[in-house]
Amino acid sequence: MKKIMWTVMVLPAALSMSVAVQADTDVSKASQAQVAQHLAPGFRAPKDNEFVHVPPTMADLDEADLHPELKKVIRKGHDLFVNTQQLRGVNVFNSMNCSSCHMGEGRLPNAGPIWPAAVTLPDYRPKNDHVNSLEERIAGCFMYSMNGIPPAYGSDEMLALSAYHQWLATGVPLYQPGKSMYGRGYARLPDPEQTPDTQRGAKLYQAQCAICHGEEGQGLSQYGKVVFPALWGDLSFNWGAGISRVFTLAAFTKQNMPLGKPNSLTDQEAWDIAAFVDSQERPQDPRYTGDVTETRAKFLDTFHKHTQYGTEVEGRLLGDHDSTGEKPALPEGSLRHRTFEFGESR
Ligand code: HEC
Ligand code: HEC
């Protein structure tokens, strides 16, 4: 217990390292690069051709020259982002907050910073094979990562969350940064030297992760608050979530976990742990056709070739069930597929 108390303390400490910086215009590129590294200890320096952005903080918002109504909405978006559990049972059906995976309030490089979405969308997205808006991108994380049902497009929640994304992108030019944004996503690790091994991963998991995430990956909630989110099982992200891809899970783990000790695992260890975590059960992929082998085949190229869903691991066919965890079964047609056939009457 003592250990857990200590580790909980790590969180605010890590966040307080984020030096309050005004929007880009006030800061030279060099000092931005320094701050960006400071935000993410142990990471490589940005390359010359990479766009570096240090998102503003909530303290900066107090000072910003924006309409008070807008500030109110941005604050609500921040609140929803770091305490998404307030939507539990309505839009969220697991133990995640957005900030469980987008760490440092969505500001940290190499921990899925969210500002790039606000300056690159609308854009084509291979996962669903059409052009997505920012709201639809947010809906995607509700659907899969939160095992949820997204708030309606245009709702107060969507507006607030979008406003918070855009606030973090203050000063970033639209589109221009292209694909070279320092710290975007979870920087992919080099391919593993040895094939990732679930048994090696299981041992490492017990030694490095179980103290917080639990021996059964169930996480920990206390007094109705999530302290440690679940890594698998009913309270975790579902089989369609981006982080269920082994390479994403490995990259996230290496660069962010164990909490407070980023970059302490070797690449191979991160791959092994990711293979192990990904070999455990979790709620069904919302794109499920009723048959796991068929669903795997249908989304193989764009997604499941990176997961163990629909494969047999230690005698178990992963994903061969129709449990949606805490979430009521999805209403028919809830995964709206957009097509744009301009010129056709509608
Ligand atoms: C279980 C982990 C997890 C949770 C929880 C989660 N996300 Fe994500 N999110 C991801 C992953 C993985 C990606 C893809 C990152 C990449 O490109 O490699 C992503 C991408 C995004 C992006 C696009 C970022 C970019 O670079 O364009 C946005 C925006 C986003 N998430 C918003 C949210 C919001 C809002 C919530 C809460 C409603 C949320 N996410 C919850 C894992 C998560
Ligand atoms: C000291 C406690 C602690 C340890 C040890 C730890 N984590 Fe975490 N982990 C957290 C917390 C807390 C979060 C949520 C991040 C936040 O809210 O800032 C998290 C988030 C995550 C997430 C994203 C959310 C989710 O539940 O899927 C993954 C994946 C993860 N950890 C994997 C690991 C792995 C793998 C290890 C072992 C290498 C590990 N963690 C060790 C505390 C810990």
TrEMBL record:
<keyword id="KW-0349">Heme</keyword>
<keyword id="KW-0408">Iron</keyword>
<feature type="signal peptide">
    <location>
        <begin position="1"/>
        <end position="23"/>
    </location>
</feature>
<keyword id="KW-0479">Metal-binding</keyword>
<dbReference type="InterPro" id="IPR009056">
    <property type="entry name" value="Cyt_c-like_dom"/>
</dbReference>
<protein>
    <submittedName>
        <fullName>C-type cytochrome</fullName>
    </submittedName>
</protein>
<dbReference type="InterPro" id="IPR036909">
    <property type="entry name" value="Cyt_c-like_dom_sf"/>
</dbReference>
<feature type="domain" description="Cytochrome c">
    <location>
        <begin position="84"/>
        <end position="169"/>
    </location>
</feature>
<dbReference type="GO" id="GO:0020037">
    <property type="term" value="F:heme binding"/>
</dbReference>
<dbReference type="GO" id="GO:0009055">
    <property type="term" value="F:electron transfer activity"/>
</dbReference>
<feature type="compositionally biased region" description="Basic and acidic residues">
    <location>
        <begin position="334"/>
        <end position="346"/>
    </location>
</feature>
<dbReference type="GO" id="GO:0046872">
    <property type="term" value="F:metal ion binding"/>
</dbReference>
<dbReference type="Pfam" id="PF13442">
    <property type="entry name" value="Cytochrome_CBB3"/>
</dbReference>
<dbReference type="Pfam" id="PF21342">
    <property type="entry name" value="SoxA-TsdA_cyt-c"/>
</dbReference>
<dbReference type="InterPro" id="IPR051459">
    <property type="entry name" value="Cytochrome_c-type_DH"/>
</dbReference>
<feature type="domain" description="Cytochrome c">
    <location>
        <begin position="196"/>
        <end position="281"/>
    </location>
</feature>
<keyword id="KW-0732">Signal</keyword>
<feature type="region of interest" description="Disordered">
    <location>
        <begin position="318"/>
        <end position="346"/>
    </location>
</feature>
